[in-house]
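Notes from hallway chat w/ T.B., transcribed later so I don't forget. T.B. wanted the structure written out for a chain they're using in a teaching module, and asked if we could keep both sequence and structure tokens in one place. Agreed to drop them here.
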Amino acid sequence: MKHLVSPNFYSEKLDPPLYKDVVDVFEDRMRYWLIEPAKYLLSAPHGEVAAVALATNYIEGIEIYSSGKDSKNKSKEFFRGGYRKIFAMVSGPEFM
């Protein structure tokens, strides 16, 4: 049965799950389920809090994806790890 695994990709994209395809799906999910809606909310009246909530999910999601582990009961730890990874890309490895 054909079903969406992200806004722009169907399950066939991950059959078999090649690295490039997994990255494509992850990027598509982050961009269209979190980043674009957050950008839209920033232009809506009183949307700032909702936009920040979406952004925090993005940060934790980066750590989940890069570690390959579940963040259940470890959200604070995973948020910190994702935050470090994101800002190390901008600031350089000395940030870590």
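Follow-up for T.B.: The chain has a mean pLDDT of 90. Might be a good example for the class.
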